[in-house]
Every structure is written in structure tokens, then in C-alpha cells.
Amino acid sequence: MLSTESIGNGPTCCTIPTVKVKFRQNPAHGGLPGATKHPTDVGVDVKRIVVGTDLSPRSSGAVSTAADLAEKVGATLHLVCACPMQAVGMGPEMVIVPDHGEVVDATKTDLETMAGELRAKGIDVEVHTPVGEAADALCAVADTVEADLIVVGNKRMQGAARLLGSVPNRVAHKATCSVLIARTA
Asked: How far is the C-alpha of 42 from the C-alpha of 73, rounded, in Å?
């Protein structure tokens, strides 16, 4: 339902459009507080949520947001951490790159640890460690698992970095499903 909401008062008051969304309640997981209980009510049916993380403390905010939502609606949570492509320098300087297989394995181990903590809360979790740029990897995993929602943090969404491009911005423009940009800072 689209409505408007006034923010502030006096000369700084403004009216912004707001959208209220009803989620269908999943009886197996208790549903959302205030969610309608009738299965034919209009709502958003979220079964698969993809969340991106770079395993940093800041990205844990996006993971927490996605996990809370997955727990409330009974969705499967897909944790994704993209592993960058292996780069090799040529010319007078040589870049020594660790074995890429070891990088992917270490990333997968860290994701599995995170997934274990979420599974202990009763959330169905799958992990993905695709190779490539983060935005492309997130969108590819979302397409593969037929995700209903992608959750990303708002890292690099402010200032000059925003003009250079950010993962959330590229995901929002490329994704074939809904995208939630969670405030992580």
C-alpha cells in the first residue's frame, strides 16, 4: 500500500512516499509480528534470500539483516562471498599470488563457520564462493538459486566512492529480483 508520511515540522517539514508490505506468515517459523494469518492475503512470498559478505565486521550488518528476515519468513539464506580473480603481474615487477584454490577454500571455511552459527538459530543456510567480481557473483548466484531477494550492505554508497561505483549500486541495477540495501555503518 502506497501512502505518504510527514517528516519534521516547520520549514524543514517534508512529505515522502512510503510503502507498506505484508509478508505471508510461515506457521513453521512463527511468521512476522503483525503479519496476516490468512494464506490468501496479498503479500510477498520470500523463499530464497541471497546475502553478500566480504567477511568484514561491517558486512556482518547485512548478514544479520538477511538472517533476521530469513528466520521470520522461513526462507533459505544463501551466504555469498566472491573470491577475486587471480591476478599476475608482468614486466619488471612480479606479483606473487597465493594458490587461488587455497583462497577459495579458506573463504568457504569462514562462510561455513558463519553458516553454522546461523543454522544453530534454526535458519536454513547454504554457502557460495563464486570466483569473480562481487556484484556479478551475487547476481549470478541469485539467478542460479532463483532468489526472491538480495541483501547487501551500503558500503561505498556515500561520497566520491559512490560516483566510482559500488557493489550495492551495481547489484541494484543488475539484479533480476528485489534488492535490500541494509545500513551497515
From this structure: 15
